[in-house]
C-alpha cells in the first residue's frame, strides 16, 4: 500500500534518523561493526510530484492500520519512506498520536542525502521528535568508515553513544567473509557536540589487529573533513647523533583556510627543539611558513672535524613558499630557504640538500608571449665552498613573443633578457641581450622534413672583480664588453616506416643538420650560466650546445645521426646515435674531454627498451672518437611490477678534464633500490648509494673506489586503512656534527581518522 500520508506533520520527523546518521558519522562505532543482513533502502523508483504541503512524506507499506482506541497509526510490511533525499526502510513503523511517540522496528535502515547509511534494531523518538534512542546502532559512512554503539541517544545538541567503537577499515576480506578490522577505537562513551562540531571519547582505547594496546584518555576528533585543533599522531626515531627522538605535533585550526602546527622535538642526548608551520589559503593562492630552532653544539663543516665542538649556539632554519594567481595570465611565486649553518639540516634529518635557493618571481603567460621577473640567492652547504662566491641574482628579466611570419611563412620568436649577478666576495656580472629567431618547417614530396632556422642576437656585458673568480676560463674581461651572434641552420629528417612481422612496425629516421656561425668573441665575455657543457644525445642537434646564454658555439659544422624505433606487441625500442664534424679550422672553445674539442666529435647515443610494464631500460653513452673508449656510461633500469620492483642506476664520467674546472669533474656511482611484496599487505624495501670514484678519476675525491654514501632498509605494512613501517638508515659520511651512524624510524598512520 502506498500514498500520501495525511498525518505528515509528524511522519516527516521520522526522517530525524537520517539527520542523526550524518551527525553520528564522525563519532565512534558500536561493538558490532560487521555488515547488517538488511540492504539499505533503495532510491525512490518513481518519485511522485512534490506535494503542496512540505510536511507530507511519501511512503509505501504492505499494510496500513489505524487503531482508533489508542489513536495509533501502524504501517507494517517493508515500510519505506522518502523525503528530500532521505530514505527509511523498516519492518514496522508505529506513531502514537496521543503521546507523540514514533517507533521504527525491525531491520531499520536509513540513508541520508550524503550516502551515509544508519542501521538499528529499533528507533524510538520522544514527542519533541528531536530527542530519541536507537538500539544496536551501526552507521556506514559514504567515506568508507563505520561507527556502531550498543545504544545511542540524543538530547538537545548532544548525541551520546554507549559502548561504542569506530574504524575506517574494511570488515570483510577479499572473499567477502567477515574479518576483524586492522584497527578500531573503542570507548565507554562517545559524545558528539553539534555546536562544537567535535566528538569526545571517554575511556577510549586503540585496538590493533584485535589486540588492545594504547589507552587514549584525551582523544577527540572533529566531524567532517575540515580538521580541528588537537594532538596529531606522534613520531618516534632513534639516531646515533641525537639519541631517541619523540615528536608530538599539535595542530591548531585558526580558521577554515588557516592553520598552525607546533611540533616539539624531545631528544634523549641533546636539548629539545621546537618546530612550527603556518599555512594559509586565500582567494588568490596559498603560502606556508615553517621553521625549527634549538640550541646545540656544532663542529666545523669538514669531512674530518676535530673532536672539540664549539660552545652552544642557537641553530635553526626557515622555509617559506607561496604562489598567487592574480588573474588568468599573471602569477607571483616565491620561496625562502635559509639555515644558520651548514650541518643543521642533515644533523636533524630535515634535508640533505647541499645548496638552498631562495627565489621570488612574477610571471605572465599567454598564448604567444611570456614574461618573467625573477630574483634568487643561494646559500651553500658544501664543504670548502665559500659563501662569498655564491651568486645573488637581482633581477633576472626574460620576455619572449612569438608570431607567424607574414612574408616567408614560418614562426618568429623575439626575446629580451637581462641579468644582474652580484657576490659578496666574488665577481659581479650584468648582462642584457635581444634576440631574433625564425623557423620554417616544410615537407618535401618525398617525405623529408626540412627545417630552416635563422638566429641573431646582440649582447652587452659588464663585470668587475673578475680576478676573484677561481676558474680562469669563466672570468672574461672586466668592464664593458659586447658581441654579436648570428647563425643559419638547415635540419633534414627522413622518416622511413615499415612493418615488422604481422603486428610490428619500425621507423628509421636519418637526420642531417648544417649550422654556420661567424666567429664570436666568447672568451672576452664572463661565463655564469654555460659552464656544465658536455656532448650528449639531448644537445647533439641543438643550435647552441652550451647550456646557457654566456657561451655560443661558433664556426660551421655538420651533424649527422639516426633515430630508430621498433614497436612489437608488448615490446618497444627507441634509440639514437650521432656525431658532428666541424668544418672550420677555428680553435675549439670547449675544454678537453667534453667530446667537442676536435673537429670530429665523440659519438653519443641513447637506447631505451621497454617490455610491457615490467622492464624499462635506458642507456646513455659517449664513445671516444679515436679508440671508442666509453667516456660517459649511464644506465637507469626499472624491473618489476608495482608491488615488487628493482631500481638500478649507474653513472661513470671518464672525461679526463682539467681538475681546475670544478663543474666538470669525473665521478662514478651506483644507485640501487627496490621493494619486495612478501604478502598481501607486507613488503620489504631498501635503497643504497655507493660512490665508486677513486683518486685516479678525481684527485680531489675522498672515496677509495668503494665508498657507501647511505643506505636504508625497512619493512612496511599497508592495507585499506593502516600504514606502518620500521626503517633502518645508515649514513657513512661525517660532516661536522652531522655524524655517520644508524637511524631507526617507526612510522604509524591511520587513514581516515579525524584529528
From TrEMBL:
<keyword id="KW-0732">Signal</keyword>
<dbReference type="InterPro" id="IPR050218">
    <property type="entry name" value="LptD"/>
</dbReference>
<dbReference type="Pfam" id="PF04453">
    <property type="entry name" value="LptD"/>
</dbReference>
<protein>
    <recommendedName>
        <fullName>LPS-assembly protein LptD</fullName>
    </recommendedName>
</protein>
<dbReference type="InterPro" id="IPR005653">
    <property type="entry name" value="OstA-like_N"/>
</dbReference>
<feature type="domain" description="Organic solvent tolerance-like N-terminal">
    <location>
        <begin position="60"/>
        <end position="197"/>
    </location>
</feature>
<dbReference type="GO" id="GO:0043165">
    <property type="term" value="P:Gram-negative-bacterium-type cell outer membrane assembly"/>
</dbReference>
<comment type="function">
    <text>Involved in the assembly of lipopolysaccharide (LPS) at the surface of the outer membrane.</text>
</comment>
<keyword id="KW-0472">Membrane</keyword>
<comment type="similarity">
    <text>Belongs to the LptD family.</text>
</comment>
<dbReference type="GO" id="GO:1990351">
    <property type="term" value="C:transporter complex"/>
</dbReference>
<keyword id="KW-0998">Cell outer membrane</keyword>
<feature type="domain" description="LptD C-terminal">
    <location>
        <begin position="314"/>
        <end position="682"/>
    </location>
</feature>
<dbReference type="InterPro" id="IPR007543">
    <property type="entry name" value="LptD_C"/>
</dbReference>
<dbReference type="GO" id="GO:0015920">
    <property type="term" value="P:lipopolysaccharide transport"/>
</dbReference>
<comment type="subunit">
    <text>Component of the lipopolysaccharide transport and assembly complex.</text>
</comment>
<dbReference type="InterPro" id="IPR020889">
    <property type="entry name" value="LipoPS_assembly_LptD"/>
</dbReference>
<dbReference type="GO" id="GO:0009279">
    <property type="term" value="C:cell outer membrane"/>
</dbReference>
<dbReference type="Pfam" id="PF03968">
    <property type="entry name" value="LptD_N"/>
</dbReference>
<feature type="signal peptide">
    <location>
        <begin position="1"/>
        <end position="30"/>
    </location>
</feature>
